[in-house]
Specification:
92 residues; alpha+beta; 4-stranded antiparallel beta sheet
């Protein structure tokens, strides 16, 4: 699942989870969710796969809600995902 796929199902995701991306931080990288206790300095190794911390789900939900509500027209999932990624990298 990519970040664009994830924003379409975020309402169904537990707020206590943390969003990681497989291998590196990239808008197109695969997204994985892990619980907060798994986070070790921003990098997590599971079954030999490296995951890099992106953002907590509860923060992502708040950001998306605020972002979408600030606009006159609801953006598509690709635009929401891009803005969420930019926020996570630059502002969070």
């Amino acid at each position: 699942m990519t970040l664009e796929d994830f924003v379409n199902v975020i309402d169904d995701v537990d707020e206590d989870m943390i969003i990681f991306q497989k291998d590196n931080l990239s808008i197109g990288a695969e997204v994985a969710l892990f619980d907060g206790e798994d986070n070790v300095n921003g990098v997590l190794i599971k079954n030999g796969v490296r995951y890099v911390y992106l953002l907590e789900v509860f923060i992502a939900k708040e950001f998306i809600n605020d972002y979408v509500n600030s606009l006159a027209v609801k953006p598509g999932s690709a635009e929401i995902a891009l803005r969420l990624f930019q926020y996570a990298i630059n502002d969070a």
